[in-house]
Amino acid sequence: MTDESVYQQIILDHYKHPQHRQLLDDFDAQVHHVNPTCGDEVTLRVSLNGTTIADLGWEGEGCSISQASTSVMSDLVVGKSIDDALALQTRFLDLMQSQGQAELTEDDEDELEDAIAFEGVSKYPARVKCALLGWMAMKSAVAEARLLSEEST
Ligand code: ZN
């Protein structure tokens, strides 16, 4: 199998079996993001424990790339420190903005895990927003949750 078909399989698996696709009852912040160019939507809730992402849950609809990417992101960031999750978000953003020219290091592959499967999406500017939707939602939910926790202390 080529990388490309392995990657397509990863995306398909996450689309069919999305991870953390259930809204949390207990949460610190909720965001709703849309990608109007494709019609993708995601509602995402995050729960922090100090400086760690204790849990994250989401619901969404839209194309397979947006839904699979949100699933992959959830899998990667739950249990991570906020700093690590945001560093990963930046790394994924860089990959998506690479226009198919990314030169991935072994370190990138280790860190991004299944998210590496979206590498090919970076060649299609119209789909990049689909792949980024969940990641952007996670970033703003974490920022909001942090702000709220600072206000309450
Ligand atoms: Zn889409």
Task: Give structural notes.
This protein has 153 residues and is α+β, with helices and mostly antiparallel strands. Helices cover 51% and strands 18% of the residues. The chain contains five helices and three strands, in the order αβββαααα. Strands 1-2-3 form a three-stranded antiparallel β-sheet, covered by helices on one side. β1 and β2 (40-49) form a beta hairpin. The structure holds zinc ion. Zinc ion binds at residues 35, 38, 40, 62-63, 65-66, 130.
What small molecules does the structure contain? zinc ion
Q: What do the pLDDT scores average to?
A: 95
Principal-axis shape: globular
Q: Please tally the helical runs, counting DSSP H or I stretches of 4 or more residues.
A: 5
Biggest β-sheet description: 3 strands, antiparallel
Structural class: alpha+beta
Counting DSSP E segments of at least 2 residues, the number of strands comes to 3
User: How are the strands ordered across the major sheet?
Assistant: 1-2-3
Pick out the low-confidence regions: none
The N- and C-terminal alpha carbons lie at a distance of 53 Å
What order do the helices and strands follow? HEEEHHHH
Please bin the fraction of helical residues: 40-55%
State the gist of this model.
The protein is α+β, with helices and mostly antiparallel strands and 153 residues long. The protein has helices at 3-16, 64-77, 82-96, 106-112, 125-152, and strands at residues 29-35, 40-49, 52-61.
